[in-house]
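Quick one before lunch.
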Amino acid sequence: MRTETELLADVPEGLFIGGRWETTDATFGVLDPSTGAVLKTVADATPEDGIRALDAAVAAQAEWAATPPRKRGEILRRAFDLVQERADDIALLMTLEMGKPLAEARGEVAYGGEFLRWFSEEAVRIHGRYGINPEGTGRTIVSQRPVGPCYLITPWNFPLAMATRKIAPALAAGCTVVIKPAELTPLTTMYIAKLLQEAGLPDGVLNVVTTTSSGAVSEPIIADPRLRKLSFTGSTPVGVKLLKQAADNVLRTSMELGGNAPFLVFEDADLDKAVDGAMLAKFRNIGQACTAGNRFLVHESVAEEFARRITERVESLRIGRGTEDGVTVGPLINEAAIDKVGSLIRDALDRGATLHTGGDRVEGPGTFFEPTVLSGIRPGSEILRQEIFGPVISITTFTDEADAVRQANDTEYGLVSYVFTEDFARGQRLIESLETGMMGLNIGVVSNASAPFGGVKQSGIGREGGFEGINEYLETKYTMTPNPFA
Ligand code: NAP
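Model of the NAP complex:
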Protein backbone atom coordinates (compact mmCIF):
# COMPACT_ATOMS: atom_id res chain seq x y z
CA MET A 1 0.00 0.00 0.00
CA ARG A 2 1.22 3.52 -0.79
CA THR A 3 1.91 5.99 1.98
CA GLU A 4 -0.70 8.62 2.80
CA THR A 5 1.49 11.34 1.27
CA GLU A 6 2.04 9.41 -1.98
CA LEU A 7 -1.67 8.68 -2.29
CA LEU A 8 -2.77 12.26 -1.60
CA ALA A 9 -0.30 13.57 -4.17
CA ASP A 10 -2.02 11.36 -6.74
CA VAL A 11 -5.50 12.82 -6.10
CA PRO A 12 -6.39 15.64 -8.50
CA GLU A 13 -7.01 19.03 -6.89
CA GLY A 14 -8.88 20.87 -9.62
CA LEU A 15 -12.38 21.00 -11.01
CA PHE A 16 -12.98 18.35 -13.68
CA ILE A 17 -14.68 20.11 -16.59
CA GLY A 18 -14.79 18.89 -20.18
CA GLY A 19 -12.05 16.33 -19.52
CA ARG A 20 -9.61 18.87 -18.05
CA TRP A 21 -8.57 19.36 -14.44
CA GLU A 22 -8.75 23.08 -13.74
CA THR A 23 -7.28 24.84 -10.75
CA THR A 24 -9.07 27.88 -9.33
CA ASP A 25 -7.91 30.97 -7.42
CA ALA A 26 -10.03 30.08 -4.41
CA THR A 27 -9.35 26.76 -2.67
CA PHE A 28 -10.37 24.97 0.50
CA GLY A 29 -8.77 22.37 2.75
CA VAL A 30 -10.13 18.85 3.21
CA LEU A 31 -9.66 17.76 6.81
CA ASP A 32 -8.87 14.45 8.49
CA PRO A 33 -11.59 14.13 11.17
CA SER A 34 -9.27 11.96 13.31
CA THR A 35 -6.71 14.72 13.69
CA GLY A 36 -8.19 17.94 12.36
CA ALA A 37 -5.18 18.27 10.02
CA VAL A 38 -5.57 19.43 6.40
CA LEU A 39 -5.14 16.48 4.04
CA LYS A 40 -5.23 18.37 0.78
CA THR A 41 -6.30 21.70 -0.66
CA VAL A 42 -8.73 21.56 -3.59
CA ALA A 43 -10.49 23.92 -6.01
CA ASP A 44 -13.44 25.93 -4.72
CA ALA A 45 -15.93 26.35 -7.58
CA THR A 46 -17.98 29.49 -8.18
CA PRO A 47 -21.51 29.46 -9.66
CA GLU A 48 -19.92 30.34 -13.04
CA ASP A 49 -17.71 27.25 -12.79
CA GLY A 50 -20.82 25.17 -12.10
CA ILE A 51 -22.48 26.47 -15.26
CA ARG A 52 -19.32 25.76 -17.25
CA ALA A 53 -19.46 22.18 -15.98
CA LEU A 54 -23.07 21.98 -17.16
CA ASP A 55 -22.02 23.45 -20.54
CA ALA A 56 -19.53 20.59 -20.87
CA ALA A 57 -22.14 17.97 -19.95
CA VAL A 58 -24.62 19.46 -22.42
CA ALA A 59 -22.01 19.54 -25.19
CA ALA A 60 -21.17 15.86 -24.66
CA GLN A 61 -24.79 14.63 -24.30
CA ALA A 62 -25.76 13.83 -27.90
CA GLU A 63 -22.61 11.87 -28.69
CA TRP A 64 -22.69 9.93 -25.43
CA ALA A 65 -26.37 9.03 -25.94
CA ALA A 66 -25.44 7.79 -29.42
CA THR A 67 -22.49 5.74 -28.17
CA PRO A 68 -23.31 2.03 -28.45
CA PRO A 69 -24.56 0.66 -25.13
CA ARG A 70 -21.89 -2.06 -25.24
CA LYS A 71 -19.19 0.59 -25.44
CA ARG A 72 -20.70 2.53 -22.54
CA GLY A 73 -20.82 -0.71 -20.57
CA GLU A 74 -17.22 -1.58 -21.38
CA ILE A 75 -15.98 1.77 -20.08
CA LEU A 76 -17.86 1.20 -16.82
CA ARG A 77 -16.47 -2.32 -16.63
CA ARG A 78 -12.91 -1.03 -17.10
CA ALA A 79 -13.57 1.49 -14.35
CA PHE A 80 -14.73 -1.39 -12.12
CA ASP A 81 -11.48 -3.25 -12.84
CA LEU A 82 -9.45 -0.14 -12.02
CA VAL A 83 -11.32 0.22 -8.73
CA GLN A 84 -10.34 -3.37 -7.88
CA GLU A 85 -6.69 -2.67 -8.79
CA ARG A 86 -6.62 0.48 -6.66
CA ALA A 87 -8.84 -0.87 -3.88
CA ASP A 88 -6.22 -0.21 -1.19
CA ASP A 89 -5.76 3.39 -2.31
CA ILE A 90 -9.47 4.13 -2.47
CA ALA A 91 -10.07 2.56 0.94
CA LEU A 92 -7.27 4.57 2.51
CA LEU A 93 -8.50 7.77 0.88
CA MET A 94 -11.98 7.27 2.36
CA THR A 95 -10.54 6.50 5.78
CA LEU A 96 -8.48 9.67 5.63
CA GLU A 97 -11.21 12.07 4.57
CA MET A 98 -14.22 10.49 6.26
CA GLY A 99 -12.74 8.59 9.22
CA LYS A 100 -14.25 5.10 8.87
CA PRO A 101 -11.95 2.21 9.88
CA LEU A 102 -9.96 0.73 6.99
CA ALA A 103 -11.75 -2.61 7.10
CA GLU A 104 -15.06 -0.80 6.60
CA ALA A 105 -13.59 1.38 3.87
CA ARG A 106 -12.55 -1.81 2.06
CA GLY A 107 -16.14 -3.01 2.42
CA GLU A 108 -17.32 0.20 0.80
CA VAL A 109 -14.87 -0.29 -2.08
CA ALA A 110 -16.47 -3.70 -2.70
CA TYR A 111 -20.01 -2.29 -2.41
CA GLY A 112 -19.41 0.98 -4.25
CA GLY A 113 -17.29 -0.60 -6.99
CA GLU A 114 -20.04 -3.12 -7.67
CA PHE A 115 -22.35 -0.39 -9.03
CA LEU A 116 -19.86 0.11 -11.87
CA ARG A 117 -19.98 -3.60 -12.73
CA TRP A 118 -23.74 -4.00 -12.21
CA PHE A 119 -24.58 -1.05 -14.48
CA SER A 120 -21.94 -2.05 -17.03
CA GLU A 121 -24.14 -5.13 -17.41
CA GLU A 122 -27.40 -3.15 -17.39
CA ALA A 123 -26.26 -0.75 -20.13
CA VAL A 124 -27.02 -3.42 -22.76
CA ARG A 125 -30.42 -4.32 -21.28
CA ILE A 126 -32.38 -1.16 -21.98
CA HIS A 127 -35.51 -2.51 -23.61
CA GLY A 128 -38.67 -1.28 -25.24
CA ARG A 129 -41.75 -3.04 -26.62
CA TYR A 130 -43.86 -3.28 -29.74
CA GLY A 131 -47.59 -3.94 -29.59
CA ILE A 132 -50.88 -3.99 -31.43
CA ASN A 133 -53.46 -1.65 -29.93
CA PRO A 134 -56.67 -3.32 -28.68
CA GLU A 135 -58.67 -2.04 -31.65
CA GLY A 136 -56.13 -3.49 -34.09
CA THR A 137 -55.92 -0.14 -35.88
CA GLY A 138 -52.41 0.83 -34.83
CA ARG A 139 -49.02 -0.29 -33.62
CA THR A 140 -47.43 1.03 -30.47
CA ILE A 141 -43.67 1.35 -30.14
CA VAL A 142 -42.35 2.07 -26.66
CA SER A 143 -38.67 2.94 -26.34
CA GLN A 144 -36.34 4.23 -23.63
CA ARG A 145 -34.21 7.32 -24.11
CA PRO A 146 -31.58 8.84 -21.80
CA VAL A 147 -33.09 11.64 -19.74
CA GLY A 148 -30.29 14.06 -20.67
CA PRO A 149 -27.76 16.01 -18.62
CA CYS A 150 -27.99 15.19 -14.90
CA TYR A 151 -26.85 16.97 -11.75
CA LEU A 152 -25.80 14.62 -8.96
CA ILE A 153 -25.32 15.78 -5.36
CA THR A 154 -23.79 13.38 -2.84
CA PRO A 155 -23.20 13.36 0.95
CA TRP A 156 -20.00 12.79 2.90
CA ASN A 157 -20.80 9.53 4.68
CA PHE A 158 -20.17 7.01 1.86
CA PRO A 159 -17.81 8.93 -0.42
CA LEU A 160 -17.43 6.16 -3.01
CA ALA A 161 -20.74 4.30 -2.99
CA MET A 162 -22.99 7.37 -3.06
CA ALA A 163 -21.08 8.60 -6.13
CA THR A 164 -20.97 5.32 -8.08
CA ARG A 165 -24.62 4.54 -7.22
CA LYS A 166 -25.55 7.61 -9.29
CA ILE A 167 -22.72 7.93 -11.84
CA ALA A 168 -22.86 4.31 -13.04
CA PRO A 169 -26.59 4.13 -13.93
CA ALA A 170 -26.53 7.63 -15.43
CA LEU A 171 -23.62 6.79 -17.73
CA ALA A 172 -25.05 3.36 -18.55
CA ALA A 173 -28.32 5.00 -19.61
CA GLY A 174 -26.47 7.43 -21.89
CA CYS A 175 -26.71 10.55 -19.71
CA THR A 176 -23.89 12.99 -19.10
CA VAL A 177 -23.42 14.34 -15.58
CA VAL A 178 -22.13 17.04 -13.31
CA ILE A 179 -21.45 15.71 -9.84
CA LYS A 180 -20.99 17.78 -6.69
CA PRO A 181 -19.54 15.83 -3.77
CA ALA A 182 -19.83 17.14 -0.21
CA GLU A 183 -17.30 19.75 0.82
CA LEU A 184 -16.17 17.48 3.65
CA THR A 185 -15.19 14.49 1.45
CA PRO A 186 -14.55 15.46 -2.18
CA LEU A 187 -11.30 13.51 -2.67
CA THR A 188 -12.77 10.07 -3.38
CA THR A 189 -15.06 11.46 -6.10
CA MET A 190 -12.10 13.24 -7.71
CA TYR A 191 -10.09 10.04 -7.64
CA ILE A 192 -12.95 8.07 -9.21
CA ALA A 193 -13.33 10.68 -11.93
CA LYS A 194 -9.66 10.18 -12.71
CA LEU A 195 -10.19 6.40 -12.93
CA LEU A 196 -13.16 6.85 -15.25
CA GLN A 197 -11.04 9.10 -17.44
CA GLU A 198 -8.36 6.39 -17.45
CA ALA A 199 -11.06 3.85 -18.36
CA GLY A 200 -11.71 5.81 -21.57
CA LEU A 201 -14.68 8.01 -20.67
CA PRO A 202 -14.96 10.76 -23.32
CA ASP A 203 -14.39 14.37 -22.26
CA GLY A 204 -17.39 16.15 -20.80
CA VAL A 205 -19.42 13.02 -20.01
CA LEU A 206 -18.54 13.32 -16.31
CA ASN A 207 -17.75 16.66 -14.70
CA VAL A 208 -16.91 17.27 -11.04
CA VAL A 209 -17.34 20.52 -9.13
CA THR A 210 -16.03 20.84 -5.60
CA THR A 211 -17.17 23.84 -3.62
CA THR A 212 -17.73 25.41 -0.23
CA SER A 213 -20.86 27.14 -1.61
CA SER A 214 -23.13 24.20 -2.39
CA GLY A 215 -26.32 26.27 -2.49
CA ALA A 216 -24.96 29.12 -4.61
CA VAL A 217 -23.32 26.73 -7.11
CA SER A 218 -26.29 24.34 -7.32
CA GLU A 219 -29.16 26.81 -7.71
CA PRO A 220 -28.27 28.12 -11.20
CA ILE A 221 -27.53 24.59 -12.42
CA ILE A 222 -30.92 23.36 -11.20
CA ALA A 223 -32.63 26.40 -12.74
CA ASP A 224 -30.94 25.92 -16.13
CA PRO A 225 -33.44 24.59 -18.70
CA ARG A 226 -30.73 22.41 -20.29
CA LEU A 227 -30.56 20.27 -17.13
CA ARG A 228 -33.03 17.37 -17.20
CA LYS A 229 -32.51 15.51 -13.97
CA LEU A 230 -31.50 16.09 -10.36
CA SER A 231 -30.39 13.17 -8.21
CA PHE A 232 -29.69 13.98 -4.58
CA THR A 233 -28.56 11.97 -1.57
CA GLY A 234 -28.52 13.76 1.74
CA SER A 235 -30.72 15.08 4.52
CA THR A 236 -34.48 15.48 4.18
CA PRO A 237 -34.50 19.27 4.83
CA VAL A 238 -31.99 19.90 2.02
CA GLY A 239 -33.88 17.44 -0.21
CA VAL A 240 -37.11 19.38 0.35
CA LYS A 241 -35.39 22.63 -0.57
CA LEU A 242 -33.97 21.10 -3.77
CA LEU A 243 -37.33 19.57 -4.74
CA LYS A 244 -38.83 23.06 -4.60
CA GLN A 245 -36.06 24.41 -6.84
CA ALA A 246 -36.43 21.44 -9.21
CA ALA A 247 -40.18 22.07 -9.49
CA ASP A 248 -39.59 25.39 -11.26
CA ASN A 249 -37.74 23.55 -14.00
CA VAL A 250 -40.04 20.45 -13.91
CA LEU A 251 -36.97 18.24 -13.45
CA ARG A 252 -36.99 14.51 -13.04
CA THR A 253 -35.75 13.93 -9.47
CA SER A 254 -34.38 11.08 -7.40
CA MET A 255 -34.18 11.75 -3.68
CA GLU A 256 -32.34 9.47 -1.25
CA LEU A 257 -33.01 11.19 2.06
CA GLY A 258 -32.77 10.67 5.79
CA GLY A 259 -33.89 7.70 7.85
CA ASN A 260 -35.06 6.78 11.34
CA ALA A 261 -34.83 3.01 11.11
CA PRO A 262 -36.73 0.88 13.62
CA PHE A 263 -34.85 -2.27 14.64
CA LEU A 264 -37.42 -4.75 15.99
CA VAL A 265 -36.47 -7.67 18.23
CA PHE A 266 -39.37 -10.04 18.97
CA GLU A 267 -39.63 -12.44 21.89
CA ASP A 268 -39.14 -15.36 19.47
CA ALA A 269 -35.94 -13.89 17.96
CA ASP A 270 -32.58 -15.61 18.12
CA LEU A 271 -30.95 -13.06 20.44
CA ASP A 272 -27.40 -13.83 19.29
CA LYS A 273 -28.43 -13.10 15.70
CA ALA A 274 -30.25 -9.96 16.83
CA VAL A 275 -27.20 -8.67 18.72
CA ASP A 276 -24.92 -9.38 15.72
CA GLY A 277 -27.42 -7.63 13.46
CA ALA A 278 -27.69 -4.66 15.82
CA MET A 279 -23.91 -4.21 15.91
CA LEU A 280 -23.84 -4.07 12.11
CA ALA A 281 -26.94 -1.94 11.71
CA LYS A 282 -25.67 0.55 14.27
CA PHE A 283 -21.89 0.70 14.18
CA ARG A 284 -21.23 0.45 10.46
CA ASN A 285 -19.86 3.86 9.48
CA ILE A 286 -19.73 4.88 13.16
CA GLY A 287 -23.51 5.12 13.13
CA GLN A 288 -23.39 7.72 10.35
CA ALA A 289 -25.55 5.90 7.83
CA CYS A 290 -29.05 6.66 6.61
CA THR A 291 -29.71 2.95 7.14
CA ALA A 292 -28.41 2.95 10.74
CA GLY A 293 -30.73 1.38 13.30
CA ASN A 294 -32.06 4.44 15.12
CA ARG A 295 -34.75 3.05 17.43
CA PHE A 296 -34.17 -0.40 18.93
CA LEU A 297 -37.66 -1.63 19.74
CA VAL A 298 -37.39 -4.80 21.82
CA HIS A 299 -40.14 -7.00 23.24
CA GLU A 300 -40.46 -6.28 26.97
CA SER A 301 -39.69 -9.90 27.90
CA VAL A 302 -36.22 -9.86 26.29
CA ALA A 303 -35.26 -6.17 26.51
CA GLU A 304 -33.12 -6.50 29.63
CA GLU A 305 -31.16 -9.44 28.25
CA PHE A 306 -30.74 -7.69 24.87
CA ALA A 307 -29.40 -4.56 26.63
CA ARG A 308 -26.98 -6.67 28.69
CA ARG A 309 -25.59 -8.54 25.70
CA ILE A 310 -25.33 -5.52 23.44
CA THR A 311 -23.60 -3.49 26.16
CA GLU A 312 -20.99 -6.24 26.53
CA ARG A 313 -20.34 -6.14 22.78
CA VAL A 314 -20.26 -2.36 22.62
CA GLU A 315 -17.71 -2.21 25.44
CA SER A 316 -15.37 -4.37 23.35
CA LEU A 317 -15.24 -1.84 20.47
CA ARG A 318 -11.98 0.04 19.97
CA ILE A 319 -11.97 3.76 19.22
CA GLY A 320 -9.17 5.32 17.17
CA ARG A 321 -7.90 6.61 13.86
CA GLY A 322 -9.30 4.35 11.14
CA THR A 323 -5.84 3.60 9.76
CA GLU A 324 -4.73 1.86 13.00
CA ASP A 325 -4.98 -1.92 13.28
CA GLY A 326 -7.89 -3.23 15.31
CA VAL A 327 -9.83 0.06 15.40
CA THR A 328 -13.57 -0.51 15.03
CA VAL A 329 -14.91 3.00 15.75
CA GLY A 330 -13.47 6.04 13.99
CA PRO A 331 -14.31 9.71 14.60
CA LEU A 332 -17.58 11.48 13.89
CA ILE A 333 -17.34 13.77 10.89
CA ASN A 334 -17.06 17.10 12.77
CA GLU A 335 -17.80 19.10 15.93
CA ALA A 336 -21.40 19.72 14.87
CA ALA A 337 -21.96 15.95 14.82
CA ILE A 338 -20.49 15.63 18.32
CA ASP A 339 -22.81 18.38 19.60
CA LYS A 340 -25.87 16.79 18.02
CA VAL A 341 -25.21 13.30 19.38
CA GLY A 342 -24.37 14.73 22.82
CA SER A 343 -27.56 16.76 23.00
CA LEU A 344 -29.78 13.83 21.92
CA ILE A 345 -28.25 11.72 24.70
CA ARG A 346 -28.71 14.48 27.31
CA ASP A 347 -32.34 14.96 26.29
CA ALA A 348 -33.02 11.21 26.60
CA LEU A 349 -31.33 11.03 30.02
CA ASP A 350 -33.15 14.15 31.27
CA ARG A 351 -36.43 12.45 30.38
CA GLY A 352 -35.54 9.33 32.37
CA ALA A 353 -33.55 6.96 30.13
CA THR A 354 -30.84 4.67 31.60
CA LEU A 355 -27.23 4.90 30.44
CA HIS A 356 -25.48 1.49 30.19
CA THR A 357 -22.18 2.59 28.68
CA GLY A 358 -20.56 5.54 26.89
CA GLY A 359 -22.42 8.85 26.70
CA ASP A 360 -19.57 11.32 26.14
CA ARG A 361 -17.14 12.62 23.59
CA VAL A 362 -13.54 11.46 23.79
CA GLU A 363 -11.03 14.21 24.45
CA GLY A 364 -9.35 15.47 21.21
CA PRO A 365 -7.57 15.71 18.92
CA GLY A 366 -10.22 14.53 16.51
CA THR A 367 -13.97 14.27 16.88
CA PHE A 368 -14.45 10.91 18.62
CA PHE A 369 -17.55 9.86 20.55
CA GLU A 370 -17.89 6.90 22.90
CA PRO A 371 -20.08 4.04 21.66
CA THR A 372 -23.18 4.36 23.82
CA VAL A 373 -26.10 2.20 24.96
CA LEU A 374 -29.28 3.74 26.40
CA SER A 375 -32.46 1.96 27.43
CA GLY A 376 -35.86 2.95 28.77
CA ILE A 377 -36.19 5.81 26.30
CA ARG A 378 -39.34 7.75 27.20
CA PRO A 379 -41.95 8.76 24.60
CA GLY A 380 -41.34 12.31 23.42
CA SER A 381 -37.55 11.99 23.57
CA GLU A 382 -35.84 13.67 20.63
CA ILE A 383 -33.71 10.58 20.01
CA LEU A 384 -36.86 8.77 18.82
CA ARG A 385 -37.66 11.51 16.31
CA GLN A 386 -34.30 12.55 14.88
CA GLU A 387 -31.60 10.71 12.98
CA ILE A 388 -28.88 10.17 15.60
CA PHE A 389 -26.04 9.79 13.07
CA GLY A 390 -23.66 8.55 15.74
CA PRO A 391 -22.69 5.40 17.69
CA VAL A 392 -25.69 5.29 20.02
CA ILE A 393 -28.03 2.34 20.61
CA SER A 394 -31.33 3.55 22.08
CA ILE A 395 -33.61 0.81 23.39
CA THR A 396 -37.38 1.07 23.87
CA THR A 397 -39.80 -1.76 24.64
CA PHE A 398 -43.05 -2.92 23.06
CA THR A 399 -45.77 -5.21 24.35
CA ASP A 400 -47.01 -7.07 21.24
CA GLU A 401 -46.78 -7.07 17.45
CA ALA A 402 -49.42 -4.38 16.98
CA ASP A 403 -47.62 -2.12 19.46
CA ALA A 404 -44.29 -2.80 17.68
CA VAL A 405 -45.76 -1.86 14.29
CA ARG A 406 -47.41 1.26 15.70
CA GLN A 407 -44.17 2.49 17.26
CA ALA A 408 -42.06 1.54 14.23
CA ASN A 409 -44.31 3.49 11.85
CA ASP A 410 -44.57 6.51 14.17
CA THR A 411 -42.13 8.62 12.13
CA GLU A 412 -42.22 10.73 8.99
CA TYR A 413 -39.27 8.69 7.68
CA GLY A 414 -39.54 5.36 5.84
CA LEU A 415 -36.17 4.20 4.58
CA VAL A 416 -35.43 0.83 6.15
CA SER A 417 -36.58 -1.38 9.01
CA TYR A 418 -34.93 -4.39 10.61
CA VAL A 419 -36.91 -7.29 12.04
CA PHE A 420 -35.60 -10.16 14.12
CA THR A 421 -38.03 -13.05 14.56
CA GLU A 422 -37.87 -16.79 14.02
CA ASP A 423 -41.58 -16.83 13.13
CA PHE A 424 -41.77 -16.74 9.33
CA ALA A 425 -45.44 -15.76 9.18
CA ARG A 426 -44.74 -12.84 11.50
CA GLY A 427 -41.85 -11.80 9.24
CA GLN A 428 -44.20 -11.88 6.25
CA ARG A 429 -46.82 -9.80 8.09
CA LEU A 430 -44.20 -7.20 8.92
CA ILE A 431 -43.03 -6.96 5.30
CA GLU A 432 -46.57 -5.74 4.60
CA SER A 433 -47.17 -3.59 7.67
CA LEU A 434 -43.93 -1.68 8.13
CA GLU A 435 -43.89 1.59 6.17
CA THR A 436 -40.34 1.45 4.81
CA GLY A 437 -38.85 1.05 1.34
CA MET A 438 -36.48 -1.69 2.52
CA MET A 439 -36.38 -4.29 5.26
CA GLY A 440 -33.68 -6.49 6.77
CA LEU A 441 -35.32 -9.71 7.98
CA ASN A 442 -32.92 -11.32 10.47
CA ILE A 443 -30.02 -9.35 8.98
CA GLY A 444 -28.42 -6.02 9.88
CA VAL A 445 -27.30 -4.74 6.45
CA VAL A 446 -29.48 -4.42 3.36
CA SER A 447 -27.26 -2.53 0.91
CA ASN A 448 -26.47 -4.45 -2.27
CA ALA A 449 -25.87 -3.18 -5.81
CA SER A 450 -28.33 -5.70 -7.25
CA ALA A 451 -31.21 -4.47 -5.08
CA PRO A 452 -33.43 -1.37 -5.35
CA PHE A 453 -32.28 0.92 -2.53
CA GLY A 454 -34.63 3.70 -1.46
CA GLY A 455 -37.26 4.95 0.89
CA VAL A 456 -40.92 5.90 1.22
CA LYS A 457 -42.51 8.83 3.08
CA GLN A 458 -39.95 11.59 3.74
CA SER A 459 -37.03 9.22 3.11
CA GLY A 460 -37.21 9.79 -0.59
CA ILE A 461 -38.38 9.25 -4.11
CA GLY A 462 -36.93 6.70 -6.52
CA ARG A 463 -34.57 3.74 -6.24
CA GLU A 464 -30.84 3.27 -6.74
CA GLY A 465 -29.30 -0.05 -7.74
CA GLY A 466 -31.06 -3.17 -8.97
CA PHE A 467 -32.98 -3.31 -12.26
CA GLU A 468 -34.82 -0.20 -11.13
CA GLY A 469 -31.71 1.97 -10.80
CA ILE A 470 -31.22 2.65 -14.49
CA ASN A 471 -34.86 3.66 -14.98
CA GLU A 472 -34.19 6.80 -12.95
CA TYR A 473 -32.08 7.98 -15.89
CA LEU A 474 -34.38 6.90 -18.73
CA GLU A 475 -37.43 8.53 -20.30
CA THR A 476 -40.14 6.46 -21.89
CA LYS A 477 -41.00 7.47 -25.44
CA TYR A 478 -44.09 6.12 -27.10
CA THR A 479 -44.84 6.17 -30.83
CA MET A 480 -48.13 5.25 -32.53
CA THR A 481 -48.13 4.06 -36.13
CA PRO A 482 -51.06 2.90 -38.28
CA ASN A 483 -51.83 -0.77 -38.90
CA PRO A 484 -49.38 -1.56 -41.74
CA PHE A 485 -51.87 -4.06 -43.25
CA ALA A 486 -54.75 -1.61 -43.51
P1 NAP B 1 -26.74 17.27 3.62
O1 NAP B 1 -26.28 18.31 4.54
O2 NAP B 1 -28.15 17.28 3.20
O3 NAP B 1 -25.77 17.38 2.35
C1 NAP B 1 -25.84 16.48 1.27
C2 NAP B 1 -25.26 17.12 0.05
O4 NAP B 1 -26.05 18.26 -0.28
C3 NAP B 1 -23.84 17.65 0.22
O5 NAP B 1 -23.15 17.51 -1.00
C4 NAP B 1 -24.06 19.10 0.53
O6 NAP B 1 -22.96 19.89 0.20
C5 NAP B 1 -25.22 19.42 -0.37
N1 NAP B 1 -26.01 20.56 0.00
C6 NAP B 1 -26.27 21.07 1.23
N2 NAP B 1 -27.07 22.15 1.13
C7 NAP B 1 -27.30 22.33 -0.20
C8 NAP B 1 -28.06 23.28 -0.94
N3 NAP B 1 -28.73 24.27 -0.36
N4 NAP B 1 -28.08 23.17 -2.29
C9 NAP B 1 -27.42 22.17 -2.90
N5 NAP B 1 -26.69 21.25 -2.25
C10 NAP B 1 -26.64 21.34 -0.91
O7 NAP B 1 -26.46 15.82 4.18
P2 NAP B 1 -25.11 15.24 4.77
O8 NAP B 1 -24.95 15.74 6.16
O9 NAP B 1 -24.00 15.42 3.81
O10 NAP B 1 -25.44 13.69 4.79
C11 NAP B 1 -26.14 13.08 5.80
C12 NAP B 1 -27.60 12.90 5.41
O11 NAP B 1 -27.66 12.15 4.20
C13 NAP B 1 -28.37 12.11 6.42
O12 NAP B 1 -29.63 12.68 6.59
C14 NAP B 1 -28.49 10.73 5.78
O13 NAP B 1 -29.57 9.98 6.22
C15 NAP B 1 -28.60 11.09 4.35
N6 NAP B 1 -28.22 9.96 3.50
C16 NAP B 1 -29.21 9.29 2.83
C17 NAP B 1 -28.88 8.19 2.06
C18 NAP B 1 -29.94 7.45 1.31
O14 NAP B 1 -29.59 6.70 0.41
N7 NAP B 1 -31.22 7.61 1.61
C19 NAP B 1 -27.56 7.78 1.95
C20 NAP B 1 -26.57 8.48 2.65
C21 NAP B 1 -26.93 9.58 3.42
P3 NAP B 1 -22.02 20.52 1.34
O15 NAP B 1 -21.96 19.54 2.45
O16 NAP B 1 -20.74 20.71 0.65
O17 NAP B 1 -22.69 21.80 1.74
